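Practice problem. Given the sequence and the SMILES for fe (ii) ion, write out the predicted structure.
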Amino acid sequence: MTDTHRRRFLIGLAASGPLLLPAPLLRAAGHFVLTPPQSAGPFYPDELPLDRDNDLTVVNDGEQAKGVICNVYGRILDRSGSPVPRARVEIWQCDANGRYHHQGDPNNAIQDPNFQGFGTTTTDANGRYRFRTIKPVPYPGRTPHIHFMVKGEAFEDLTTQLYIAGHPQNSKDTLYRNVGSPELRQLVEADFVAPAPALQSWRQNGTLW
Ligand SMILES: [Fe+2]
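Answer key:
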């Protein structure tokens, strides 16, 4: 197995705003700092939805899911900073009622049938990915988060989670605290801010990037 196969990957995570990785964190000992891995948790879909595209806010041609609609986007880079094309990016999260689309979820909240719960996409030539989903909400025992899994032919899978920067429940969340230093935590956080003007124009033009 070559070194390439052992690489994990840095994910640039952003939500309705510019890429948020702070520059001082990007390099350590000549390499980019890798996105910290996190547990997949117990609710990776037990049955993948038939509609599993990168828009989680609609199932087929149904009504819009409950929740605050947001764009989650970023880039997959290797540790040298080069973009990784054709990487498969999966996300999954609970719906606006705090309920996963998983038979093992003990939460008795009503499931939102219009939320896809899981989506996947493939990075473009510049390593970019994008999802349309809902702003994550808390559920019993966890601060809001979106689960990520990144897969490719030339590297190990990376499983991690994206958090809302500054959310008051973060400091009580064991998995969030386990990320380690405050500097590393910033690599798995996004502000979920209002869209930047440039993104608004892309959206109006119907262009993904
Ligand atoms: Fe979770």
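Check your answer against the key. The first strand starts at residue 10 and ends at 15.
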